[in-house]
Specification:
This is DUF4371 domain-containing protein. It is built from twelve helices and six strands.
């Protein structure tokens, strides 16, 4: 036998299959994930589509991806008998509890370090609760949940509303949004104007929906020239500028309180409105 004939008769190399992939070779066209599978009671408890890939399906119980072939999915569903549905339900309830506790911390402006003590308190208060005993929520995880889950979801919902609704804006130049450490620009009128416009254009919010702008009366915000409002009037003619009187009144209230503390004079009747 010649060397060429020997090469042609060699055993083909084995290829490693993806976990959950069928061992059979199908000659028909590959199947896309069916949306009706999600509502099917046989699969709805564990089957999910794979983002950006319609040819794959995902099991949320064992975190396994598989080809979106109905035969493969049916075969995988039979292995779910080894999983107790109560265990899966506990996992889902635990995730919900983690999000609720993280939302509570964020809503009440509490430090994320409190999550360690909050979970221990819940365990002590409800010792018979499987959900409480199953919550692995600490400072790092609660921070990630608020930043990457709750925050992004809230931003998406707010963006959807602002894209279809007329709205007003009230801003404070002292927020971290306007800090520019690298270029030493700081909270200048140009910087504030650029950041406001960029925030809306990046989120594809029509600037025509912005009808009012309010802030305190500092020169950076409401100066006659070279301020945020002077640039906004040129860029968006016709919208309303409002000086935030409440902020001005609050400033004078704080000022009089400080004067009372320093001088001993009672100014209460003057600064309460």
């Amino acid at each position: 036998m010649s060397e060429n004939e020997s090469d042609n008769c060699s055993t083909p190399e084995k290829t490693k299959r993806r976990r959950g992939e069928s061992s059979k070779t199908y000659s028909h066209e590959k199947q896309n994930f069916g949306d009706e599978w999600i509502t099917n009671t046989d699969y709805s408890d564990w089957l999910l589509p794979v983002h950006n890939n319609k040819l794959l399906a995902k099991c949320k119980l064992c975190i396994t991806e598989m080809t979106a072939e109905l035969s493969v999915i049916k075969k995988h569903s039979q292995t779910k008998k080894t999983f107790k549905f109560d265990q899966f339900k506990l996992v889902e309830q635990t995730k919900k509890a983690e999000i609720l506790l993280s939302s509570f911390i964020s809503e009440h402006n509490l430090p994320f370090n409190v999550s360690d003590h909050l979970v221990k308190t819940c365990n002590a208060a409800y010792p018979d609760s499987k959900i409480c005993s199953n919550i692995p929520l600490a400072c790092t995880k609660s921070t990630a949940l608020v930043s990457n889950v709750i925050g992004l979801y809230s931003l998406e919902q707010l963006t959807n509303v602002l894209q279809k609704t007329l709205f007003s804006v009230i801003i404070d130049e002292s927020t971290n949004l306007f800090e520019d450490i690298e270029s030493d620009k700081g909270a200048t009128g140009q910087k504030i104007f650029d950041e406001v416009i960029k925030a809306f254009t990046d989120s594809k919010i029509p600037l025509d929906n912005l009808i009012e702008f309010a802030s305190d009366g500092c020169n950076t915000m409401f100066g006659a020239s070279n301020s945020a409002t002077s640039r906004l009037k040129e860029f968006l003619p016709g919208f309303v500028l409002l000086l935030n009187i409440l902020l001005v009144l609050l400033f004078f209230c704080i000022l009089k309180i400080q004067m009372a503390e320093n001088t001993g004079i009672d100014f209460k009747t003057n600064y309460f409105i």
